[in-house]
Design brief:
The structure holds two protein chains of two kinds.
Chain A (H helix, E strand, L loop, with lengths): L8 E4 L5 E6 L10 E6 L6 E4 L13 E6 L2 E6 L8 E9 L5 E4 L3 E5 L1
Parallel strand pairs in A: 1-9
Antiparallel strand pairs in A: 2-6, 3-4, 3-7, 5-6, 7-8, 7-9
Chain B lengths: L2 E5 L2 E3 L5 E8 L7 E7 L5 E7 L6 E3 L7 E6 L4 E6 L8 E9 L2 E4 L3 E5 L2
Parallel strand pairs in B: 2-11
Antiparallel strand pairs in B: 1-3, 3-8, 4-5, 4-9, 5-6, 7-8, 9-10, 9-11
């Protein structure tokens, strides 16, 4: 069971807007930045959002991130078929000696 | 461009050991913390270990402490993961990842299969 909680699946049709939630606690999301990673089938993960809501260069502005309290969310607008992938949230957790925590992942299907 | 290439994976019997390597290029390796993250077949990402740029700080996932040892060689731009007493549940793709303010940059991974 993952420390960060994500829905296992999400779906939408092309052009739609979908959101993926990520729930944590005060020791991780509540106190630290949230990152979102996209993993296309058969590929390594790639950072999509860093520091809660920042996009690396090359990531389309269709992708956006937000954080409130101990929860975060990833929004994808103008859904495209190539967005079909697994999405993971991540944050540093300050409890114990410190460690990275990931969500269980959300499989996004473009219908 | 950040380039990370993992190696050292393969088929190993339960109880055996492996040393994974990650060759880094395209950035100043000695300036960044590095991580190992694994992914069991069909499962999600699981953080394994982190090491600071100068090896002063090392962190492990609680469930893996004692069998995994992370290390680095800044002179040769390399990251390592020693895994002992391998179990079937250690079967996974092991990714090397650079830790930057812009998030983690990942290698392509190396597959470790533990089976008799």
């Amino acid at each position: 069971q993952s420390v960060l909680t994500q829905p296992p699946s999400a779906s939408g049709t092309p052009g739609q807007r979908v959101t993926i939630s990520c729930s944590g606690s005060s020791s991780n999301i509540g106190d630290n930045y949230v990152y979102w990673y996209q993993q296309l089938p058969g590929m390594a993960p790639k950072v999509l959002i860093y520091r809660n809501n920042q996009r690396p260069s090359g990531v389309p502005d269709r992708f956006s991130g937000s954080k409130s309290g101990t929860s975060a969310s990833l929004a994808i607008s103008g859904l495209r078929s190539e967005d079909e992938a697994d999405y993971y949230c991540a944050a540093w957790d300050d409890s114990l000696s410190g460690f990275w925590v990931f969500g269980g992942g959300t499989k996004l299907t473009v219908l | 461009e950040v380039h990370l290439v993992e190696s050292g994976g393969g088929l190993v019997k339960p109880g055996g050991s492996l040393r994974l390597s990650c060759a880094a290029s395209g950035f100043s390796f000695s300036s960044y913390a590095m991580n190992w993250v694994r992914q069991a077949p069909g499962k999600g990402l699981e953080w394994v270990s982190s090491i600071s740029s100068t090896s002063s700080f090392i962190f492990y996932a609680d469930s893996l402490k004692g069998r995994f040892t992370i290390s680095r060689d800044n002179a040769n731009n390399s990251l390592f993961l020693q895994i002992n007493s391998l179990r079937a549940e250690d079967t996974a793709v092991y990714y090397c990842a650079r830790e930057a303010t812009t998030g983690m940059d990942w290698g392509q991974g190396t597959l470790v299969t533990v089976s008799s």
